[in-house]
Amino acid sequence: MLTVPVALQRLDPDLPVPVQARPGDAGVDLHAREAVRLAPGERALVPTGIAIALPEGYAAFVHPRSGLAARHGISVVNAPGTVDAGYRGEILVNLINTDRTEAFEVGRGDRIAQLVVQPVVAPRFEEVAELPSSKRGTGGHGHTGTGGTAYPPADNKTKD
């Protein structure tokens, strides 16, 4: 596995430094710096007690924890959240409770999300009059798995 040095500032010395749960894991666990109660449908920015300085050419992405999502409906609103290389503030996780009936208590120190660091490429857009064709074409939004058509269908003319 490749490694990259990332400067980390602990804003809360009582919380652990993020680490991989197991060797080879893609993400590191982020912990809640504050306790938060999320009512059904409610969202909150939860501080993690860390700030990082990524090298140029890298970004970090905040992903939901699969166990919290499966067991309690807790997810990240803007999944994945993006931490750009130039950002130096505290990493905040935008949690949401998607459960329709049960509130969820986030305790201080709870693992609330995963942070994945990846290299990124800066696009250099070149405007063209027409895109080259491809086998997939304009099909999207699940059209290959449902037997349906692209949404909206490419040949569908909307009427006002």
Description:
With 160 residues, the protein is mainly beta. The chain has a single domain (7-119), classed as Deoxyuridine triphosphatase (dUTPase) (Deoxyuridine 5'-Triphosphate Nucleotidohydrolase, Chain A), CATH 2.70.40. 7% of the residues lie in helices and 34% in strands. The chain contains two helices and ten strands. Strands 1-4-8-6 form a four-stranded antiparallel β-sheet. It has a four-stranded antiparallel β-sheet with strand order 2-10-5-7. A two-stranded antiparallel sheet has the order 3-9. The chain is globular. The chain starts with 6 loop residues before the first strand and ends in a 14-residue tail after the last helix. Mean pLDDT is 91; it is low at 155-160.
Which key features would you list for this structure?
160 residues; mainly beta; Deoxyuridine 5'-Triphosphate Nucleotidohydrolase, Chain A; four-stranded antiparallel β-sheet; 2 helices; 10 strands; globular; disordered C terminus
Low-confidence stretches: 155-160
Sketch the major β-sheet.
4 strands, antiparallel
Shape: globular
Q: What is the β-strand count?
A: 10
Strand order of the largest sheet: 1-4-8-6
What structural class do the secondary elements suggest? mainly beta
Give, in order, the helices and strands. Answer: EEEEEHEEEEEH
Instruction: Report mean pLDDT, rounded to a whole number.
Output: 91
- CATH architecture level-2 label: Distorted Sandwich
Number of helices: 2
- Tell me, what is the CATH class? Mainly Beta
The Cα radius of gyration reads: 20 Å
What is the CA–CA distance across the termini?
A: 54 Å
CATH topology: Deoxyuridine 5'-Triphosphate Nucleotidohydrolase, Chain A
Query: What percent of residues are in strands?
Result: 25-35%
What's the structural domain tally? 1
Helical fraction: under 10%
What is the H level of CATH, i.e. the homologous superfamily? Deoxyuridine triphosphatase (dUTPase)
